[in-house]
Every structure is written in C-alpha cells, then in structure tokens.
Amino acid sequence: MFKKIMSLTILSLIFSSLSLQGLAYSYNDTDVEHLQTVKDAKIDLVKITPSGNVIQKENNLVVNFAQNFNSKYYKTGDYVQFIFENDVKTIEGTLLIPCNSSLIARITCIESPKWFSRNAKVYMEFTHILLPDGTNIPVCVELAKKKYLQEGAKETAGKIAAYTLSIGGVGSGLGAAIGVAAGHTITGLIIGGSIGGGVGLVSGVVSPGLHYKAKKGEKVILELQDNLKLPVK
To answer: Quick check: helix, strand or coil at residue 181?
Structure first.
C-alpha cells in the first residue's frame, strides 16, 4: 500500500510539473508590442505570437487612395482600392502589414449633392486586405471620425465664394467663406449682405453642394472594429 501511495504521489508531482511548464510556455509565448500609430488613437496594442500577430480592435490604420476619386463617377456596389504606402509595424520593429498592400472597399451608398450646398456623402464597407504575396485577409474597419467621406467646410466655402464671384460681389463671397468655414452658412449670408453683396451669395448658398473628390495618395484614417490577425512574415 505504501509503495502504491508513493507511486501515485510521484506521478502526481510529475504531472503537476508538466502542467506548470505548459502554463509557463503559454505565458511566455505571447508578447505585447505597440503599434506605430496616429495621434489621438484610442490604443496601440499588438499581440505577438508564433502563430500570428494580432492588432487589437480600436487601433488606427492609415491608408491612401490608390487612384483619383470623384463620387460623381461612382455608384453603389463599385469597389475602391486603397494602398498602405508605408510598412505597418510596431515601435519594437515587428512588421505587420508590408507597404504596397491593398485595402479594398465596396461603396454601399452615395448620397448625391443636395441644394443649399449640402455635399455628397460616400459610405464604404472595407472588406479585406490583400498582401503583395496574394494573401487575402478579412478586416472589420471603419472610418475613424465619420461614417462617410465628405468634403469639408473649407471646400464648401471655396465653392460658394467662387460661385459668388462669378456672378459679382467680392464682399458677398468673403461673407460666404467666413460663414461656411465657421459651420454656419446663414451667418455667412448675413455677413455677406452687410459687406455689400446679396444676389451672388444667395445663389451660391442655395446651389447644390460638392461631389466628394480625393487625389491619388490622399490619406484616410481608419479604426479597427475587431481584432485583426495577420500572418507572421
């Protein structure tokens, strides 16, 4: 009986030792590094493992338009290609996504420009990353600031000012630019009228807004909505 008890005790100790070794290996098998990211990103954590590197959700990715884009010539269902112009890597030096990888997006909706200078809106679903070696990686990511791409106040102000000047009245054009840049078109209307314009400014404000345009290479900042697992390169 004593020999049986000793044998069981020894076996138990052996199994315990193996289990502890396994736990230690699992713990040391995963390291956390930090993504080279943009200012004001929510997090920068990346898990580094032998089986694959994982960029944690809420990290930011930066991509660039692969070609000139104008919403006037696109429709729902069309695909748009973006490029990683630089390597995506951690501060510690681990390469995650090599440069010249592509991010593919499908246009889910385009709202055309509307009257009273309301600009077009372009909604996209980012579907997958295509690495230079042909590897296809599904991705869940959205635009970091808005749910759509749209021209900003500066472009709208320029459009109204140009429209106004084409009709006549420098003062009214200036008023439009001030108002729209501040986010209040009606303020621009009042300022423009008081400076010495009226017809041109009103026509510019009431006219349709702008299509969304982007030049090749223009930067877009995205936020991961789920963890992104990448193969070890």
So the answer is: helix
